[in-house]
Amino acid sequence: MIVIKSYGFAQIEFPARAYPFNFKYLAYAAQDLIVNDTIVPTYRASKYYYINSYTGKKVLNQSFEEAYPFYNGFGLVRINGKYGIIKRDSEIVVKPTFRGFEFSVDRPSISFHGGYGLNFFNLVEGILSDRDYMDGDPVEPIPPVIKKGRQFYLRDTARKDIPLIYDDFATTKNFWKYNGFYGLRKNQIWYYFKKDKLLFKSKFKPLSFADNVFIYKTQGKYNILNNKGITVLPQNYDWISPTGRVAVNMKGDVVILNKVNKEFMYSPGNRTL
């Protein structure tokens, strides 16, 4: 038997189309939406505004050329062609003096450039410095599955309530980051696990795993299963981000989905690029 290290990874690729904003950071920041008072950016009359997604009312009167969801209380914005960071009350944390930025999901951090030197903003601690940081050492856990030939086996061979031999395996590259979610297929049925616990069964192959968000694809479109295996979105989408908070609908609009899966416009599909 051999240990599974790089086989069967499910993943969702970002859209190939070029957008006038950073799609990677949009999808990452949107996962931190607050349940009871979700403030989201939306595109109105050629500008972005922050609004309450439940009421539709503006929470900040100021407009921005680009605006991203607040992550850990920090919102990345562009003003007069320059990037900076504000808080939810509009207090400026990083003055908009940088012409560009790059985002690292492994830190997580934002590196600004095109201003006064290269500066790194730590999204966890909210600190701007001239040095990037590492968020601890990577963990290499023992995977829950081993492979022999073309078949897959759970390590826990004492289990009697579920099949022990499977035909396919799917997980994410950040297995432990997403609480140990993975899927195993037997014939045409996928078994969804959280560590050693069987959550539910489904005919759909998992493409991405997160708490209460399991994305699948059907007839070329995407939707979401909850942790009971029930489809939660009333319509399918052309694309959904791995954490289920950003999607591209069939009109080509980029939308944000809040915690109750209400769709809210981020950027219209007919926007001039």
**Helices and strands: which structural class?**
mainly beta
Mean pLDDT, to the nearest integer, reads: 86
> What is the number of domains?
2
Portion in strands: 35-45%
Work out the helix count: 1
Number of strands: 25
What can be said about the biggest beta sheet?
Answer: 4 strands, antiparallel
Low-confidence stretches: 1-7
Task: Set down the secondary structure blueprint.
Layout (H helix, E strand, L loop, with lengths): L1 E2 L19 H7 L9 E6 L2 E6 L13 E2 L6 E6 L2 E6 L4 E7 L1 E5 L4 E7 L1 E6 L4 E3 L15 E4 L2 E4 L10 E2 L1 E3 L10 E6 L2 E6 L2 E6 L5 E3 L2 E6 L2 E5 L13 E2 L5 E3 L5 E4 L5 E5 L6
Annotation keywords:
mainly beta, about 270 residues, 4-stranded antiparallel beta sheet, about 5% helix, single chain, disordered N terminus
Describe the structure.
The protein has 273 residues and is an all-beta fold. It has 2 domains: 107 residues, no CATH class; 125 residues, no CATH class. 3% of the residues lie in helices and 42% in strands. The chain is built from 1 helix and 25 strands. Strand 19 and strand 20 form a beta hairpin. The longest helix is centred in the first third of the chain and has 7 residues. The N terminus is likely disordered.
